[in-house]
Inverse folding.
């Protein structure tokens, strides 16, 4: 049983891996909490905005805006895909990209060309590997997306939409439902739907004074709604990424623990076998002499 | 005290949540002042300085456009960026102003974007330190 030393070596390296994965799990946990509180901090803005759009839509008697018009004649759409820059987060990127592929195939079958804006290094290399084209590739958003990073992307896509370059805008990301559940989704942002923009009917409508007119206010509010919807997708994705990494690293730590246990058992058995063999040798030698 | 609630929220965070006695905001058509019991109002904002008189003293905040809503003695300011004027770097803002002014804009969208960038940089350069 000469493999005792090999077993010790393997056990030590597994221990080191466990140390690393456990640290990564702890880091992901801390980042998750930070990302989660950031996502929650943005909620009041979104809710208030929806409430204002709802109030205005009623005051302006219906909604009509370039961002709500459908362009059925345009056979080109834009899709923003949110993936992570870094790996070691389980099926996070793979799940989003699988859904994206399904979406792209379905749109292509419908005769629609899709311009993909890819966020995150993992998605970019995945598309390069598949030989698919990207309209734009952006990296370095990181796990704390700032509004001023997302704003230019949203503004550019809105300009493309109003000028008729694209007929729809979609965003694909990992939606954060709860700490135990995240689901990849492809959501439509443009054309803006009334429900998405205005939210629920308030209990008591307020009789506002408007400055400038409700129509002009809507001109500003609706683009703001689109921007914040896209931004929320970014913050949601950041939270989901950290959860995925946390779960993946927990699984890796647990697996390492199991392996250490198994290796320890093998090591002990090997040692016992060797002790027994040596004893047998000694007993055999003593017997031969007697 | 004749106070009302003032809250400033951005897509990233709730920046301010205080009781105020008097607030002035940079509205799209000039400064506008708020006191308690003002009639419900929804107003578009310009880039500029928010000034709030609170029982604990004056609070200043740079706001990057957006909207303000006054209902039931609750003034909510929605803006895409809000920060303490002392956090603004004047030299950097002046550099951005020069850059924005030098930009060539040929279509209406680019022109609007440039004007917005110029106005934003100009206000920041004035408020910054």
């Amino acid at each position: 049983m000469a493999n005792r030393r090999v077993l010790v070596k393997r056990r030590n390296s597994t221990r080191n891996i466990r140390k690393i994965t456990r640290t990564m799990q702890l880091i992901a946990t801390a980042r998750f909490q930070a990302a989660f509180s950031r996502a929650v901090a943005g909620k009041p803005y979104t809710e208030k905005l929806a409430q204002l759009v709802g109030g205005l839509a009623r005051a302006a008697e219906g909604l009509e805006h370039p961002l709500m018009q459908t362009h059925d004649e345009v056979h080109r759409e834009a899709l923003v895909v949110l993936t992570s820059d870094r790996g070691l987060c389980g099926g996070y990127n793979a799940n989003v990209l699988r859904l994206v592929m399904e979406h792209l195939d379905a749109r292509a079958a419908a005769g629609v060309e899709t311009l993909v804006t890819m966020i995150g290094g993992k998605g970019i290399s995945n598309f390069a590997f598949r030989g698919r084209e990207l309209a734009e590739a952006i990296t370095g958003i990181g796990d704390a997306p700032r509004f001023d990073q997302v704003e230019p992307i949203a503004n550019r896509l809105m300009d493309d939409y109003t000028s008729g370059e694209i007929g729809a805008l979609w965003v694909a990301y990992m939606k954060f439902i709860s700490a135990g559940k995240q689901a990849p989704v492809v959501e439509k942002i443009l054309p803006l739907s009334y429900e998405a923009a205005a939210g629920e009917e308030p209990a008591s409508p307020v009789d506002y004074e408007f400055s400038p007119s409700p129509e002009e206010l809507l001109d500003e509010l609706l683009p703001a709604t689109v921007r914040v919807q896209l931004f929320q997708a970014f913050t949601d994705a950041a939270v989901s990424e950290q959860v995925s990494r946390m779960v993946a690293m927990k699984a890796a730590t647990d697996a390492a623990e199991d392996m250490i246990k198994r290796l320890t058992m093998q090591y002990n058995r090997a040692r016992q076998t060797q002790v027994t063999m040596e004893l047998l040798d000694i007993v055999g030698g003593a017997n031969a002499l007697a | 005290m004749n106070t009302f609630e003032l809250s400033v929220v951005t897509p990233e965070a709730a920046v301010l949540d205080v009781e105020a006695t008097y607030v002035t905001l940079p509205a799209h058509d000039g400064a506008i002042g708020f006191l308690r019991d003002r009639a419900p109002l929804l107003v578009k904002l310009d880039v500029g300085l928010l000034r709030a008189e609170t029982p604990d003293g004056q609070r200043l905040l740079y706001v990057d456009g957006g909207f303000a809503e006054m209902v039931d003695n609750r003034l909510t300011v929605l803006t895409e960026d809000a920060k303490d004027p002392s956090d603004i770097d004047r030299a950097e803002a002046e550099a951005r102003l020069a850059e924005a002014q030098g930009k060539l804009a040929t279509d209406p969208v680019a022109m609007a974007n440039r004007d917005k960038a110029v106005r934003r940089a100009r206000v920041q350069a004035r408020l910054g330190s």
The radius of gyration of chain B is 16 Å.
